[in-house]
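Q: Given only this backbone (362 positions), what sequence would you predict?
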């Protein structure tokens, strides 16, 4: 795993990292580009991948990301040679696959454990599949390459050229080593002209296979796109104000962030840990959960094993308010109690043990 994928894993989770490795091989050829696009368009969240999958938005997400990197090349001279003719000049024989019987003819060129998933999945329903085989392929042996590299002679002696059947015709050039080398689905950087100049335009002219990534509008339920261009997951929306996890509020598309060491944002409330205050963010909508004018003596935060956060608030009259928040800072439970303090040590966790507090739930 390269450094860029490690950062994507840290910010967006392991499943998103795998998705990016599999679907954005071309973009990963340019160091840092995919990470830049993700950070520019999506607030880091380990929930993003799961929400995309639940809503069947994989293709929309893929098109959205690719739409930022596609540059149409309208001024290229139309080639006069066919893809077969050009690949012949590069030392390859080109074959177009129309059936699974056609595809399976090429499995013989792959070493055990290195066969493409093309041979196992319903690939022809999703892609146009071609194979380009070096004319001297029988002379190129796997055992002669103990330290394989993606662009070595063995790796590029058998390549599968695949275009998606949707309107984008996204290209993938697959390596003979499969996943035994870095980014094998991006052989020749997924650029046909890196095999021989003019091949990209030739596939466009003679097969009608031209990559197109129109800039698309992406929508994901439970997410709002703020005026900084990023999508944010939110807990609830009230009058165009979005209350989000991670101490973020999107107010009429303006992003407001609250430092986690100073504040806790939950539901419509903001807890000020420094000044010991609780306030409604939007004072037009006051819910009778708290008397925000009450004087707070102490706020103690305890995290439990379920990624929940328990916020214990002691007021001036020694009454206790206890909040249980989930990992998104959504309120799960609220308890209000009268307490009689036996211990004078307000910093001690033992203050909240049964032996030290007499309680009466309201």
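A: Predicted residues:
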């Amino acid at each position: 795993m390269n450094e860029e994928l490690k950062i994507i894993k840290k910010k967006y989770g392991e499943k998103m990292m795998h998705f990016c490795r599999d679907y954005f091989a071309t973009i990963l050829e340019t160091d840092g580009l995919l990470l830049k696009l993700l950070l520019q368009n999506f607030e880091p969240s380990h929930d993003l991948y799961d929400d995309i999958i639940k809503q069947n938005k994989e293709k929309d997400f893929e098109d959205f990301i690719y739409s930022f990197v596609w540059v149409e090349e309208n001024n290229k001279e139309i080639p006069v040679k066919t893809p077969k003719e050009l690949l012949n000049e590069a030392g390859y024989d080109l074959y177009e696959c129309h059936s699974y019987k056609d595809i399976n003819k090429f499995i013989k060129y792959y070493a055990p454990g290195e066969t493409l998933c093309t041979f196992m999945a319903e690939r022809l329903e999703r892609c146009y599949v071609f194979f380009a085989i070096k004319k001297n392929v029988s002379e190129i042996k796997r055992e002669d390459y103990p330290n394989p590299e993606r662009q070595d002679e063995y790796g590029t002696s058998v390549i599968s050229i695949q275009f998606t059947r949707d309107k984008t015709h996204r290209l993938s050039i697959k390596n003979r080593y499969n996943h035994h080398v870095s980014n094998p689905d991006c052989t020749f950087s997924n650029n046909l002209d890196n095999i021989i100049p003019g091949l990209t335009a030739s596939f466009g002219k003679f097969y009608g296979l031209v990559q197109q990534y129109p800039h698309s509008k992406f929508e994901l339920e439970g997410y709002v796109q703020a005026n900084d261009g990023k999508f944010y997951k939110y807990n609830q929306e009230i009058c165009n104000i979005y209350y989000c996890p991670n101490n973020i509020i999107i107010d009429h598309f303006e992003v407001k962030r609250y430092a986690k060491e100073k504040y806790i944002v939950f539901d419509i409330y903001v807890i000020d840990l420094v000044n010991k205050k609780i306030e409604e963010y939007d004072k037009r909508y006051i819910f009778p959960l708290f008397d925000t004018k009450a004087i707070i003596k102490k706020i103690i935060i305890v995290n439990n094993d379920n990624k929940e956060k328990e916020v214990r608030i002691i007021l001036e009259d020694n009454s206790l308010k206890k909040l249980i928040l989930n990992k998104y800072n959504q309120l799960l439970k609220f308890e209000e109690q009268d307490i009689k303090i036996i211990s004078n040590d307000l910093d001690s966790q033992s203050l909240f043990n049964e032996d030290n507090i007499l309680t009466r739930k309201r």
